Amino acid sequence: MTRAITPFHIALNVRDIEEAKNFYTEILGCTVGRSASDWIDFNLYGHQLVCHLDGSIGKQEKINPQFYPKHGHGIPVPHYGVIIKLDDWLSLSKSITGKVEFILTPTVRLEDKSGEQATMLFYDPSGNALEFKSFKDVDTQLFAV
Questions:
Q1: What angle do CA 2, 135, 100 make, to 5 degrees?
Q2: How many angstroms separate the CA atoms of 77 and 69, rounded?
Q3: Under 8 Å CB-to-CB from 20, ≥6 apart: which residues?
Q4: pTM to 2 decimals?
Q5: What gap in Å lies between CA 115 and CA 107, rounded to an integer?
Q6: Contact 119, 109 (CB under 8 A)
Q7: For residue 124, which phi and psi values (nearest 5 degrees)?
Q8: pLDDT (tens digit, 0 to 9) for every residue of the chain, 145 residues total?
């Protein structure tokens, strides 16, 4: 079954537009859409990610998420990401290793259980937490109980 997904739009605060542009294009492979001096659009796996300059975040500061315990890990909230094909997930995990600060290194969680997923969490340079996941069969596992 081919899943027809409506693209999402998400906007984030960043401390530096050029730093964000470098990270999202060079590390994550996004392409740039529209931009101005204080914001920039990215194509993130077909979804619209917009980074807005937040002058209240110092050049050496990071956004400070809250953490909650889940599956033995501290998971930052808020976080965002995309569910991608397993081949894309494997390729991304290899290409970013050594280039990002992992919160949760690439791993398979809930192995052999409902909701089994390959997942990784990491920060962008401003401290926004990103989670990328993959399922063997997204149509049956995404909302499995």
A1: 120
A2: 11
A3: 14, 40, 51, 124, 125, 126
A4: 0.86
A5: 14
A6: yes
A7: -85, 175
A8: 456 788 999 999 999 999 999 999 999 999 999 999 999 999 999 999 999 999 888 787 787 767 676 656 677 778 898 999 999 999 999 999 999 989 899 999 888 887 788 999 999 999 999 999 998 877 777 777 7
Which residues have C-beta within 8 Å of that of residue 22, sequence separation ≥ 6? none
Q: Could you give the domains of the chain?
A: 9-56+65-141 (3.10.180.10)
The tokens describing 82, both together, are 């995309």
Length of the chain as a residue count: 145
Alpha carbon of 84 to those of 40, 67, 87, 136: distances in Å? Answer: 23, 24, 8, 10
**CA quadruple 54, 57, 59, 60: dihedral, nearest 10:** -150
Name the residue type at position 71: H
Give the tokens for residue 40.
């920039």
Place of tokens 């693209």: 7
State the residue for tokens 């809250």: 66
